[in-house]
Amino acid sequence: MPLDSTLQGKRDFKVVGTRPLRPDGIDKVTGRAKFGADATAPGMLVGRILRSPHAHARIKKIDTSKAEKLPGVKAIVTREDLPDHTDGDALLYDVLYNIMAREKALYEGHAVAAVAAVDTRTAREALKLIKVDYEVLPHVTDVDEAMKPGAPILHSTIFTDGLEPKPKKPSNVVRRYEFGHGDVEAGFKKADIIVERTFKTEATHQGYIEPHACLANVGPDGQGELWVCTQGHFMVRDTCARLLGMDISKLRVTASEIGGGFGGKTTVFIEPVALALSRKANRPVKVVMSREEVFKASGPTASTSIDVKIGVTKDGRITAADATLRYQGGAFAGSPVEFGAMSAFACYDLENARTIGYDVVTNRPKQAAYRAPGAPMAAFAVESVIEELARKVGMEPIDFRMKNAAREGTRSSYGPTYGPIGLLATLEKAKQHPHFKAPLSPNQGRGMACGFWFNFGGQTCVSLNVNSDGTVALSVGTPDIGGSRASMCLMAAEELGIPYDKVRAIVADTSALGYNDVTDGSRTTFATGMATILAARDAIKKLTARAAQIWGISAEAVTWEKGYAKPAGSNAGNFPPMSIAEIAAQAGATGGPIAGHHEYSADGAGVSFATHICDAEVDPETGATKIVRYTVLQDAGKAVHPSYVEGQFQGGAVQGIGWALNEEYIYGKDGRLQNAGFLDYRIPVCSDLPMIDTVILEIPNPGHPYGVRGVGETSIVPPLAAIANAVSAAAGVRLTSLPMSPPRILAALDRKAAAE
Amino acid sequence: MVKVVVWGSLKPHTGGQAELEIEAGNVRELLNRLGETYPGLKPQLARGVSVAIDGVIFRDGLHEPLRKDSEVFLLPRMTGG
Amino acid sequence: MSAIHVTTKINGDVVDYVCEADETLLDVLRNRLGLTGAKEGCSTGDCGACSVTIDGRLTCSCLVLGAEADGREIGTIEGMAKGDELHPLQRKFLEHAALQCGICTPGILVAAKSLLEHNPKPTETEVRFGLAGNLCRCTGYDKIVRAVMDAAQEMRRA
Fold this sequence. Notes:
The complex is a heterotrimer of chains A (756), B (81) and C (158).
Chain A: H1 25-30, E1 45-51, E2 57-63, H2 65-69, E3 73-77, H3 90-99, E4 104-105, E5 111-117, H4 120-129, E6 131-136, H5 143-147, E7 173-181, H6 184-189, E8 193-201, E9 213-218, E10 224-228, H7 233-244, E11 251-255, H8 271-281, E12 285-288, H9 291-297, E13 303-312, E14 318-328, H10 337-343, E15 353-360, H11 375-392, H12 397-404, H13 423-432, H14 434-437, E16 444-453, E17 458-466, E18 472-476, H15 484-496, E19 503-507, H16 524-551, E20 558-561, E21 564-567, E22 578-579, H17 580-585, E23 594-602, E24 608-618, E25 625-635, H18 642-661, E26 692-697, H19 719-731, H20 742-755
Chain B: E1 2-5, E2 19-22, H1 27-37, H2 42-47, E3 49-53, E4 56-58, E5 71-76
Parallel strand pairs in B: 1-5
Antiparallel strand pairs in B: 1-2, 3-4, 3-5
Chain C: E1 4-10, E2 13-19, H1 25-32, E3 51-54, E4 57-60, E5 73-75, H2 88-95, H3 105-118, H4 124-130, H5 142-157
Parallel strand pairs in C: 1-5
Antiparallel strand pairs in C: 1-2, 3-4, 3-5
Helix pairs in contact in C: 2-5
């Protein structure tokens, strides 16, 4: 929707910016909250999925006859039961292929068949009785290997797009992207110092604690219901309906409480399979992934290989910046390399910038979004080089960054010119922060990094009903992944001028609201929040009209203030203010229920920047690293519920710490994942970490009535680099591969010792 | 005429030019004209694009009005986590 | 397979159930008794989302068989509040916004309660090690540690 200047400018808040308890809090601390796997239905069956043990294999035949005869087996589904309804939509076909393998299994864990049975043991037994005839094919899991001529080819249909002339032979490179402006070659000629390095990052998983889970129920009339933990139940409904050839109206999807997503629950995996099983068995079917399945068959993020080259003058001005990014996104097109390439240099004011990205397929699970998809790896590479350049020109890295930082009016490396942005403000605040000057102990190093994320809006629909007692029922369509219902209640209460606890927000099912995009892109507090504000304003218009009707004056002569309708001035008439409860009580007699709503495609999300400071201590004997101090400074535009904004800052930083130090997908020579569990894929635990300090900056986003910017994703962009810079400072040697696990650090220390 | 800037890897489809001048009153018209004038852009347009108009990113706003002097950047369609 | 009859006490109430020999206590709690507050995050004892106490000892219920609960006393998140009065830890978790998605919260609360029973005055480091068996992916643990420290202080004063 167009940016409405009348929306802007509110900075005087009554409840927005306070920290009330969340409305779903009691349920969450008492065990009452119902998550994906917590639902049951009468006659419910257990659904289980058979998965390919091979990284790459042709599926010659699937024989289910023995399994079908096992007592207690009620339905078996294979590729035959999921015919292609995708109608030429290549992206949707990839989703279909990913949820159930077709001619080939493309990664270890790729679904091959599924069973619904009366209990878990029978379902497990049935999977063993399904005979799959595989022709094992050569595989490739490394991004650089997959790009080489002669690499095993996953899809005979991929001819690299974006190359001129278009290749005649298929490859694993789906597409080449290029962004930038100016002339980097000319820019490098002006440089006094150039640093050029290559970086590698391993694939990581979002690591949400709740495995994917759903309960499907399709009746013989073709109508279906689905209970599911997802970041977007409307997306689930539309995707499943299309994959199964159903009318969208026949499928109703309810979003359960969601136990973490971070982007990993923005697509479908088990849901269409559960629906297909239920349809075939004519019974409710619950499918819950095991943790091993989550690692092997959901959507981790890309592993990458990145070259960065930046040139500077002696006085510390960047003359040119160039990067080539290679991201493998698993077995299908769509690694987040374009966002990596677009965001790589987004923090800098550059005359000459170029980024080239290659989207590569390998025999790994198809990646899904992970918090600012594609950006953290690019920032790791770029911010590492920035730190090194600053040292080379003899500047403090923070001063070097401030000298070259993007600001209002800067042409961004991905194209558009920035409006008001908060990067410099975060840098200035960082410089003043006590952390910045705190002394370091032996073996400790300090690093910092900046990060950027786009944020976006998207389709949103909100409905706000005024109850007969003047309380408010707010229905939103974006699953609450980290306290958003509290933020929505705050914004509705702010507009209506009523107490926070008079508003109750729920996440409505797909039949109750128009389409809502997924909770992603840091969009919910921004877009659903703005829709809530506008729905409240719509309700206020109706409330004042009803008051006018009761008073017998014109609607224009009534204003709304602090939860009361009032005559606009003495000319309008002398009536005592009428409360929302009084107006609501008379709703039936004055025209019926009072509701506000708003439907739109939200735009104007406003980009977001952060600066992180990290102190790391490296044990030179063992190579083990400990983060001893960490500070996040980020622009939130306006923090609606500051506690949950801080929570987003802290959570993103700690996911970044895991990515930087421990987490990685480890593949064997057989193309199988070797660490598909939380013991071997180690995410940060409480004792690994210090407190995570936060500083919220508020540089209003002109695209939101309260100035809100999304905050959820930017916080994971700087940590990889901030930690790498800290570890490199502590170890005295530059680390260029993630994770910086003890063996890698020891190897780097050995290289340093050998060089000395 | 609206100034449209396409990202680098689309240049082979626009005769090597990054900056194009297109007559359009809103985003939908702009994308339609782009596809008609440069058929090579059609697959990318079908995959989805976002636009930035005078610095503000619009992911969905097909009817977003364009001024004569608007500067429009084509961007890959935004997704997030 | 023949089912096993088990008599146990859960949150103070005597409970009888039958289960299969290979069924975990977590499966029994969730699937047979409707106590879905304990969550399955990994089924290998690595995430702590299924934490319960058995005879006062903190345990991952995914690593215990349902049959082993016979004659024992089980404590789950559902028994933590006394009627409508929240346990101080539950209250402090809400006040400190120590949860985002909330899936790990029941397990962390059970673990924190057990920690404070054994150590009413823990240092920050002791809290961090006491909760090291419980994974949280949303919060970065900062607010969780603060909530536990604050609750401990309040409980000591009471």
